[in-house]
């Protein structure tokens, strides 16, 4: 006690040692912040924010800014050869700091075999980044006229290759890091009618472009210098924006269910679905499936899916009995291919699963039950891709016959996405 | 004065240290409790609003009037909600009953008893059980693991009697506790021809 009061220098040496210890303890706290799931709105780093002003340590990581891109402007137009008419319109349906949605309509009258027309839609971004690559995801799906050949995406930016023509453009590219920030770059989505085509029609498609928050978990090492600019990266504002953009942890489903003919109980279901390259967030999932559902604890299902962090598509099937969920995955369906999925029980050997007529064994040895038959698009995060297309939907009835769906009911667990019915046996899942 | 300032400053620093220590400790506790929990994945199964599809939520008496069999319920549990499927003839409609302790009972009409041995082949988490002389399958609450992901499942007891497959579920009760409840479920009565009964009523 005497030494404490008579030697304040010694006192502060002890306190200083304690501070250094706390510096290392504080690093644990910083790691906790860094490991928070940026897509989980329930994770709030508020306790550590009050801690920061007293932190004398420096995490060595420099988190990538949540977005380094700003949409500066958009423009569109069309050009055509002699005797060819064209017109276009673009409606912005959704914007926020990370995502932009557009409905694009392109009308053309191409009645000559020796000329064509060209539509372009340009998105100009300002860049606030350097030394760091900025990922961009995009997705395009048709609303009117499914067959739209010769579409192309060009990126007017050095170091980023152009993309070849494709039927259902979707995927990701990265704006490469540069030592000096570029002022802007431009993405061009174009649709060209080539000379041999003779088409008079209107195409409409939906385009989504997104830059998602950095989800990489940085590593941290304590040092003796403190850079206060780390803190704003994890400011409540950024977290709030995240939670508005990406919500996870639930099944967001758009279901098409057949029935309403008095006894909508079926022993099997099948249908065709398109396999493409969806955008899936690290903890998300994108699923297309057909299913038979007896109740909340008993169902069978087959389809294709992509889980977050894999960039791989696979076939899958499930059987849930008394609430016990079993899942089987296999294969790698090629991009931009169509596949038939089928599950049924004819009373012999349990539930049978087929993809493109090839049986996946063993069967699920559960009793046949008459139940709801449906097809759906499911995603586990609101930033996962949303559109889907099911067609040639059939159900397996009491008499053992495959019959086209006679009715189609929407069950929506993912507003504002909705089921766009083409017929009672075909539907899209799209945004308004 | 200098001496007093030193003491006051020291006390302030100690107070700050105490506060920081508390915050760090709290965070460590949070981390620890998280690491102790099993992380569950979201199953891909289709969602449904009620325990059974295409169902109406009804009063107990109204629900009983929709089916020709006596709805089997445990003797000592208070009913919270009850659903009856809209489709099918009265003898084949499904029924779901939610009880006050969150136990769920689902009844489906099935002509013949399931092959429980085959079912266990495909769902090995189940064990064979017996409810008042009627064979069935059941399990404790737990989770299955598939492709490195954990999927939770409820505890359950399921059996077949008189054309009805009856299953009781609970997220918290053990298999033994569910079996005790199952044994109090009144046996489903022989299906009654509802129309003939109603015809005789003046």
Summarize the model shown.
Chain A is mostly beta strands. Chain A has helices at residues 2-6, 8-34, 46-49, 230-233, 236-245, and strands spanning 69-80, 85-95, 99-110, 117-127, 134-144, 151-156, 170-175, 184-193, 199-210, 248-258, 268-275, 285-295, 298-307, 313-321, 324-330, 337-344, 351-355, 358-364, 372-381, 388-396, 402-404, 409-412, 418-423, 426-430. Chains A and B meet through helix 2, strand 10, strand 12, strand 13 and strand 14 of A and helix 1, helix 3 and strand 6 of B.
Features:
heterodimer, A: 432 residues, mainly beta, 7-stranded antiparallel β-sheet, 5 helices, globular, B: 202 residues, Protein Transport Mog1p, Chain A, two-stranded antiparallel ribbon, 10 strands
What is the element layout, followed by pairings?
The complex is a heterodimer of chains A (432) and B (202).
Chain A: H1 2-6, H2 8-34, H3 46-49, E1 69-80, E2 85-95, E3 99-110, E4 117-127, E5 134-144, E6 151-156, E7 170-175, E8 184-193, E9 199-210, H4 230-233, H5 236-245, E10 248-258, E11 268-275, E12 285-295, E13 298-307, E14 313-321, E15 324-330, E16 337-344, E17 351-355, E18 358-364, E19 372-381, E20 388-396, E21 402-404, E22 409-412, E23 418-423, E24 426-430
Antiparallel strand pairs in A: 1-4, 2-3, 3-9, 4-8, 5-7, 5-9, 6-8, 10-19, 10-22, 11-16, 11-20, 12-13, 12-19, 13-14, 14-15, 16-17, 17-18, 20-21, 20-24, 23-24
Chain B: H1 2-36, E1 55-57, H2 60-66, E2 79-85, E3 95-99, E4 104-109, H3 116-122, E5 127-131, E6 134-139, E7 142-146, E8 149-153, E9 155-161, E10 164-170, H4 175-183, H5 194-200
Antiparallel strand pairs in B: 1-2, 2-3, 3-4, 4-10, 5-6, 6-9, 7-8, 9-10
């Amino acid at each position: 006690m005497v030494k404490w009061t008579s030697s304040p220098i010694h006192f502060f040496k002890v306190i200083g040692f304690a501070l250094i210890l706390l510096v290392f303890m504080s690093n644990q706290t910083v790691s906790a912040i860094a490991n928070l799931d940026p897509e989980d709105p329930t994770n709030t780093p508020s306790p550590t924010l009050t801690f920061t002003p007293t932190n004398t340590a420096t995490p060595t990581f420099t988190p990538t800014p949540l977005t380094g891109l700003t949409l500066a402007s958009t423009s569109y137009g069309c050009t055509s050869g002699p005797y060819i008419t064209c017109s276009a319109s673009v409606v912005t349906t959704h914007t926020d700091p990370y995502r932009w949605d557009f409905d694009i309509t392109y009308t053309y009258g191409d009645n000559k075999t020796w000329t064509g027309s060209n539509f372009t839609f340009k998105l100009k971004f300002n860049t606030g980044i350097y030394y760091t690559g900025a990922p961009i995801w995009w997705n395009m799906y048709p609303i009117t006229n499914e067959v739209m050949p010769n579409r192309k995406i060009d990126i007017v930016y050095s170091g980023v290759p152009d993309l070849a023509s494709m039927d259902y453009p979707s995927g990701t590219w990265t704006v490469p890091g540069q030592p000096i920030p570029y002022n802007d770059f431009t993405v061009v989505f174009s649709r060209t009618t080539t000379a041999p085509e003779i088409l008079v029609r209107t195409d409409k498609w939906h385009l989504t472009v997104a830059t998602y928050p950095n989800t990489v978990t940085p590593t941290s090492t304590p040092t003796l210098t403190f850079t206060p600019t780390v803190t704003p990266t994890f400011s409540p504002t950024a977290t709030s924006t995240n939670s508005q953009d990406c919500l996870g942890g639930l099944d967001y489903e758009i279901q098409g269910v057949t029935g309403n003919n008095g006894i909508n109980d079926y022993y099997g279901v099948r249908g065709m679905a398109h396999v493409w390259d969806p955008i899936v967030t690290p903890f998300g999932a994108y699923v297309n499936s057909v299913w038979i559902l007896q109740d909340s604890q008993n169902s069978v299902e087959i389809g294709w899916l992509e889980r977050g962090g894999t960039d791989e598509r696979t076939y899958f099937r499930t059987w849930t009995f008394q609430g016990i969920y079993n899942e089987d995955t296999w294969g790698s369906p090629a991009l931009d291919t169509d596949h038939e999925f089928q599950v049924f029980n004819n009373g012999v050997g349990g539930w049978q699963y087929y993809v493109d007529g090839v049986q996946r064994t063993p069967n699920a040895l559960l009793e046949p039950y008459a139940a709801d038959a449906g097809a759906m698009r499911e995603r586990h995060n609101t930033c996962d891709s949303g559109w889907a297309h099911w067609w040639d939907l059939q159900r397996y009835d009491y008499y053992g016959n495959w019959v086209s769906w006679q009715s189609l009911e929407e069950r929506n667990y993912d507003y504002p996405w909705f089921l766009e019915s083409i017929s009672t046996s075909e539907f899209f899942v799209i945004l308004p | 004065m200098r001496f007093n300032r030193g003491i006051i400053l020291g006390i302030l620093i100690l107070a700050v240290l105490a506060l920081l220590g508390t915050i760090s400790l709290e965070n460590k506790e949070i981390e620890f409790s998280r690491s102790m929990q099993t992380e569950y994945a979201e199953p891909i199964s289709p969602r449904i609003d009620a325990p059974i599809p295409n169902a109406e939520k009804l009063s107990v008496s109204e629900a009983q009037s929709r089916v020709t069999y006596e709805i089997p319920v445990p003797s000592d549990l208070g009913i919270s909600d009850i659903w009856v499927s809209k489709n099918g003839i009265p003898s084949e409609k499904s029924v779901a009953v939610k009880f006050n302790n969150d136990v769920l009972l689902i009844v489906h009409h099935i002509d013949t008893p399931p092959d429980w041995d085959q079912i266990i082949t495909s769902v090995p988490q189940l064990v064979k059980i017996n409810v008042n002389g009627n064979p069935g399958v059941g399990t404790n609450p737990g989770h299955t693991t598939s492709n490195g992901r954990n999927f939770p499942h409820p505890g359950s007891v399921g059996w077949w009697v008189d054309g009805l497959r009856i299953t009781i579920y609970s997220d918290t009760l053990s298999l033994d506790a569910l079996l005790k409840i199952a044994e109090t479920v009144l046996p489903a009565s022989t299906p009654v021809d509802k129309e003939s009964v109603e015809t005789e009523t003046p």
